[in-house]
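pasting input
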Amino acid sequence: MQAKPPLIGAMTTTGTHLRLVRDDELPAVPEQPYVRVMSGPGLDRVSSTIEALITRFRTMVRSIGARRGLVEADLDEVLQDVRIRLWQAGEGGKVLDDLGSSYLYTVATTAALDLLRRRRARRADDTEDIREHTDVTTDTASPHDAVEARELASQIDAAIDTLSIDRRVAVRFHLAGYDREDIARMLGWTEARTRNLLYRGLDDLRRRLTVMGISPRRTG
Amino acid sequence: MSSHFDDEALRAAYEPALRESTTRHGPDCPTESELLSAVRGAGDEAERLRVLDHALKCPACRRELALLHAVSSGETRAAPRRIRDLSWHRWRPAVMAASLVLAVGLAGVVRVRSRGPEEVMRAGAAAGPVLVTPANGAAAGAGLVRFVWRPIPGVIQYTLEVDATDGTVLFSSPTRDTTFMAPIAPTAAGDHRWLIRAKLEDGSEKRSEARVLRVR
């Protein structure tokens, strides 16, 4: 059986309005302890409402995070937590249809923060990270080319380190896939200031790379 | 090939540095709360720069930064909508009407601006944005409701917020205009509070008064 949030077994509903009940109030079908509580039309509707929310939210979050290094497994873990929290929202009498999108973002942010805390607390060096090996497994270039590409990236990184901190942060954001709107929002800068610092930072970087004798030719 | 990196070549050359990913943190890594504060633009600029400078270089923090950014900052990017499905087809007539209302609203803004500096001052230069409509305590049916407020100088973005009486945010949407058509679901019947938050160029925020909106 597919893994399900444990709290589902202790919930019932009126329409899309959830409330928590004691387990002995649920209709007993002992051989199917999970499926029995999902069989009512109200619960079906709640379940499909939550899944629709999760699906839509996942699409939005992925569209934002895709180019910025978001790890799919991290998002999946957060969304599983969000799913449970939506079910729990019924305990407070919340009507799912009435929850605004900002509520979802708040719940997801809290879930993400909790996930990071749990990971750090259980000693991150025990965690197996499948992405740690992707640069080896997905690279189709020869081992020599891969080493050279990493060396070039490392030299660019060293050149970025020599920039002033505001230009450095703007350039690193840019190269990591964040757009100017992201940078401006996080740093509290105006669009004009962000554009200015980014362009000057990129110019500085190119000059540094030229002085260091690093050119695009080395990538080919 | 040019001897200088163009943007595409620079990104491609730097990409191997971004591929490194780990969950192992060092002693210099910011806490997850400090990361979230930086993502939200909270705290002073020097501290945000320090945290983000580290987070963008450190593989473990960069991964966390990407997650926190994606799940927390999407609110200001995503199209505002209530959770109840508001399909384009369902609302197309209303949205077309809203476009007309928006055009009228913008014309109204132009008129307000043409009235001179005194009007701009009364429009809330010293305080937050001044609300125009709906009036305080006004009743509205389910559907699209038009919200209008007066502009204030130096604004990057306004945010319309409709709250339930318990403070839960029912609707929130950023806009650069001073008119907004917000969808109100039939299930939202009751008394609500609405207000405008204005984010200014210097990073500060001003709020309008809050008005009561009665949804029938």
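fyi Residues 88 and 204 of chain B are 35 Å apart (CA to CA).
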